[in-house]
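Sharing a chain and its predicted structure for anyone who wants a worked example. Both blocks are below, sequence first, tokens second.
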Amino acid sequence: MNTSTRSDTLTKPMLSIGPSLLRLRDTLVQKVLPPVVILALLMGIWEILCSSPTAALPAPSQVISDTWELIVNPFYDYGGNDKGMGWQILASLERVAYGYLLAVVAGISLGVLVGQSTWALRGLDPVFQVLRTVPPLAWLPISLAGFQDSTPSAIFVIFITAIWPIIINTSVGVRNIPEDYRNVARVIRLNGYEYFTRIMLPAAAPYIFSGLRIGVGLSWLAIVAAEMLIGGVGIGFFIWDAWNASMLSDIVLALVYVGIVGFFLDRIVAFIGNLVTRGTTQS
């Protein structure tokens, strides 16, 4: 092998890596750098405003110092409600999963019914429009009286909070199925199940997943508020308990975790929606 051939062999991998490095650099500059800069700016302002000894709220440096044990050991368990932040969030996520999945099943079913049947639309839509305006926590006393237990009551509050956007978006998606699709289904004589799986669900999927994204966000908001009242293990009661103990740094850390978990829940539903609808839903 002569010198020029060996040189070409050595330079080929570098040429193939070059575009990848450029794309990575562009991604970092365009998508990672802006939020990092803004976050650093906000943290700096927060630190300056709250660094005074007379400040009512803790500065970021104090929050990290006060909650360091919670950060580095999120899964400790000293019995009762004295559990790490990881267990608190997992307990809340479990309640959200039960309530949200029930809302998905019931919401899509009712949305399809209302979207397909004019009679059902005229009968149920006024009821939905009234009930969806009831604040989530207003349902909690009724659910506690009905279930006589805090856990199913919290799950019911999540269910009743998440179901309305799912119903409404699903019904809108079903009503907006193009008439051509319906005509094709009649021509090729699809039965009810085939029409549901081949025409209705694919055509209404972008609307359905828009409702599912709104629903999962509302579910996470509702569980935090509900757990403040029902007690037990959960991130909502952790915040309320920290407030009663005047541990503001713990509250700040919990709010950060709540925001991050809520963001990832939304991203997960959006990711599944993009896979199912092949990118026709907004991310």
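Comments welcome. Residues 1-5 have pLDDT under 50 and may be disordered.
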